[in-house]
């Protein structure tokens, strides 16, 4: 397994992490991801740890905390071998204060997560969304207090815009609070919006990307083809309404390119899509999910080799989309003279 820096934290994480949203899931979204119990989860964790995948990501809203509970149970006796990442701020109860990033909810949410995870500390806590109703100064102060108390070790955000992340960093710098070092973000060959603003932010501020849904909500599994209906077992039957919209012609253009490169390399379509992401600037770790052992082992095959520069260029071209103003001048070369090389090649 390859290990990478988590932003500018000085802490290393595996290039592939495991998304535990497949643990204990029920309902229209989470059951489509998976519903492994503690015994099934323990077997998947065994495979992960044997392979060097020791980062496990979950959230309090993954089936009302069931994912955290199953993960905590599966890690009994080996907590010291794992990096636990979880998230909160989305609604996690019926009460008026069971949502957001207020001091009350952050402290209560962390205490509940620690109990479910059966641990004394969380390695990486990420805010699941930006709370516009709570002053950023209060949010960063509370998070800093929790770090100083030893309950959290590193901080991150998820689903924030660039200005929201930058304001949070500025407040942390002004008052000497703990900064964000991770940004859990959607990024894939068919979802490259991350590159427009969040990637430059990550480069500038030392914030590493923790990538979720790297296969575009299941669209890059190799099972979707031009002119063919969705396979009967595709989770998109249940989750398409939750997924970001995708232009179908662009999707099939990307799939065609993946198929060509799969034939050249002998690798699977998902492995190629993951390997492309592993070579992007700022990416610290990619969260892979699996309903079963076969899927997990398949995804692990994305490590240990690299696409050629020419193959990456073909995938870049197939997945390219013109960014909105004011970002597009950086991509069409107008500002290349004053743009970091990593952005020029993104």
UniProtKB/TrEMBL annotation:
All copies of domain NADP-dependent oxidoreductase, residue ranges: 16-318
Pfam annotation, one family: Aldo_ket_red
Superkingdom as given in the UniProt entry: Bacteria
Coiled-coil portions: none
UniProt cross-references to PANTHER family, sorted A to Z: NADH-SPECIFIC METHYLGLYOXAL REDUCTASE-RELATED (PTHR43364), OXIDOREDUCTASE (PTHR43364:SF18)
Name of the protein in its database record: Aldo/keto reductase
């Amino acid at each position: 397994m390859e290990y990478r820096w988590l932003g500018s934290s000085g802490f290393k994480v595996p290039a592939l992490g495991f998304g535990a949203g497949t643990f204990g899931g029920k309902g229209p979204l989470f059951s489509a991801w998976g519903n492994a119990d503690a015994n099934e989860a323990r077997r998947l964790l065994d495979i992960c740890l044997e392979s060097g995948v020791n980062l496990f990501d979950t959230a309090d809203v993954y089936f009302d905390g069931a994912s955290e509970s199953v993960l905590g149970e599966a890690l009994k006796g080996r907590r010291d071998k794992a990096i636990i990442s979880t998230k909160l701020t989305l609604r996690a109860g019926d009460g008026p204060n069971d949502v957001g990033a207020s001091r009350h909810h952050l402290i209560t949410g962390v205490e509940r997560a620690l109990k479910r995870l059966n641990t004394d500390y969380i390695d990486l806590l990420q805010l699941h969304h930006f709370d516009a109703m709570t002053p950023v100064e209060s949010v960063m102060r509370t998070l800093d207090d929790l770090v100083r108390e030893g309950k959290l070790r590193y901080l991150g955000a998820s689903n924030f815009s660039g200005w929201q992340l930058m304001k949070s960093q500025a407040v942390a710098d002004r008052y000497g609070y703990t900064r964000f070092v991770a940004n859990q973000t959607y990024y894939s060959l068919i979802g490259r919006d991350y590159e427009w603003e969040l990637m430059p932010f990550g480069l500038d501020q030392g914030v590493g990307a923790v990538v979720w849904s790297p296969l575009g909500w299941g669209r890059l599994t190799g099972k979707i083809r031009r002119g063919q209906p969705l396979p009967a077992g595709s989770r998109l039957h249940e989750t398409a309404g939750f997924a970001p919209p995708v232009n179908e012609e662009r999707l099939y253009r990307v799939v065609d390119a993946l198929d060509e490169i799969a034939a050249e390399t002998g690798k699977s379509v998902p492995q190629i899509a993951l390997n492309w992401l592993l070579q992007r600037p700022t990416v610290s770790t990619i969260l892979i999910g699996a309903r079963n052992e076969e899927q997990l082992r398949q995804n692990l095959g994305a490590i240990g080799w690299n696409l050629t520069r020419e193959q990456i260029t073909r995938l870049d071209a197939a997945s390219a989309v013109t960014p909105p103003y004011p970002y597009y001048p950086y991509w069409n070369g107008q500002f290349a003279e004053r743009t970091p090389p990593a952005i020029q090649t993104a």
